[in-house]
Design a protein that fits this description.
Elements lengths: L10 H21 L72 E4 L3 H5 L9 E6 L5 H9 L1 H7 L3 E6 L7 E6 L2 E6 L5 H14 L8 E5 L17 H24 L3 E8 L6 E2 L4 E2 H5 L2 H5 L4 E5 L6 H12 L4 E6 L4 H12 L3 H8 L1 E6 L9 H14 L6
Parallel strand pairs: 1-2, 1-12, 2-3, 3-6, 6-7, 7-10, 10-11, 11-12
Antiparallel strand pairs: 4-5, 8-9
Length: 392
């Protein structure tokens, strides 16, 4: 909200105006609580280091997922301060500068396998995953050895948080009303786990970056996917997820000085539009405030058909809010992957994408890359020609 006034010429009038303005501000702060849409908000890895293996399966690692059990849903423990009218973008941490025509390349699905890749020397960061509380056991081991080793090598780390396969799905109460969807992401237990994750992956502020893609494929977390207004319970779920995202971003900022945080989209969202139900491209506009408050933007591209159009369209859609990362790129069709590599990472295409906002590109895993010597040569050529690394 902005306040505009004209300065009165009479001193007495100035006092009256200031008193009136103070009353308005007190009333506003005491009673106004707006939703992000402006409406009222009243109502290949080792066995202990799991990694995703197939684009045809769900995108996260298939490792142990301990059921939340005592992980109570709802919104307890949410530290998000202040009304929605505050300047959310004030705490943004910029990503490292990347010149047009260059990208920061990453590789998953786990730190150990990526570090051993023949591409490792040209990568800017290595990608790994968190799929739920069951992953904390091996991540705690990494904290003592592998994570410091990665940072010492000059690589950043990219943590993908995928929770659509964790815990139960149901209807439960939130501060926005009854919501239907995956319970663990909105639980107080997730915030506790997020604090541990921030501590595990923390690095120095002047060292390699920790990129965090939170809630990747977020559209799938409610009971009904991809539409803001599919049901009132769906809308409430998305609103509560936005709250939880901002709270988690603050946790990573507080616990990891090198952390940059983004909200993770499924790249299919750009393929259609339904303004009435807030589906397709229109869903993204309902997240505009949290996207502006994010350090960067991210989405996946993992269709078995061509992903080139999704990458271009999502980069343009999200690029208006900040720098963009392709968080996990893969195809179940090797022919489609080969074609996409030439369509996206050859010739002048990288410069075009970077001008639209793309700054980073992470391969989901090495299955497409290692399919053939030619595929490896294609990936190596793209990374060497267009990649950039920070020096520490």
């Amino acid at each position: 909200m902005s306040l505009r006034s004209r300065m009165p010429r009479h001193p007495g009038a100035l006092v009256l105006v200031l008193l009136a303005m103070s009353a308005v501000l007190v009333a506003t702060l005491g009673h106004e609580h707006r939703g992000r849409d402006g409406s009222s908000a009243a109502g290949p890895s080792s066995p202990d280091r799991p990694g995703p293996t197939s684009a045809a399966s769900l995108p996260g690692p298939p490792g142990a997922h301990a059921p939340p059990g005592a992980h109570a849903p709802h919104d307890e423990g949410d530290p998000r301060p202040g009304p929605w009218g505050r300047a959310l973008a004030a705490g943004i941490r910029p990503v490292p500068a990347t010149q047009p025509g260059k990208l920061r390349f990453g590789l998953g699905p786990a730190l150990d396998s990526a570090l051993a890749s023949p591409l490792a020397g040209n990568l800017d960061f290595l990608t790994t995953w968190y799929n739920g509380p069951g992953d904390l056991s091996f991540l705690r081991k990494w904290r003592a050895d592998l994570i410091p080793e990665v940072y010492r090598s000059g690589h950043g780390i990219h943590l993908v948080v995928w929770l659509d396969g964790t815990g139960s799905v149901g209807t439960f109460q939130t501060s926005h009303g009854p919501a239907c969807g995956r319970e663990y992401p909105l639980s107080g237990a997730f915030l506790t786990d997020a604090r541990e994750l921030a501590s595990i992956f923390a690095g120095p502020a002047n060292g390699p970056a920790l990129y965090v893609t939170l809630f990747t494929e977020l559209q799938t977390y409610p009971c009904q996917s991809n539409e803001w207004a599919a049901t009132p319970e769906t809308t409430n779920y998305y609103r509560a997820l936005q709250d939880r995202y901002l709270a988690t971003q603050e946790i990573f900022h507080a616990g990891a000085p090198n952390a940059r945080v983004s909200l993770g989209w499924g790249g299919w969202q750009s393929r259609w539009d339904d303004p009435v139900k807030g589906g397709g491209r229109s869903l993204i506009t309902h997240f505009a405030d949290v996207l502006r408050a994010s350090d960067f933007q991210s989405f996946q591209a993992m269709g078995n058909d061509s992903n080139a159009a999704d990458v271009r369209n999502m980069t343009k859609l999200l690029g208006q809010y900040g720098p963009v990362m392709v968080a996990h790129f893969k195809s179940g069709s090797q022919a489609a992957w080969d074609a996409d590599m030439h369509a996206l990472l050859a010739g002048d295409e990288v410069r075009k994408l970077s001008l639209d906002g793309l700054f980073a590109f992470s391969f989901m895993d090495q299955s497409n890359i290692n399919f053939s010597p030619q595929a490896l040569a294609t990936a190596r050529g793209a990374v060497q020609s267009h990649g950039v690394r920070s020096s520490y």
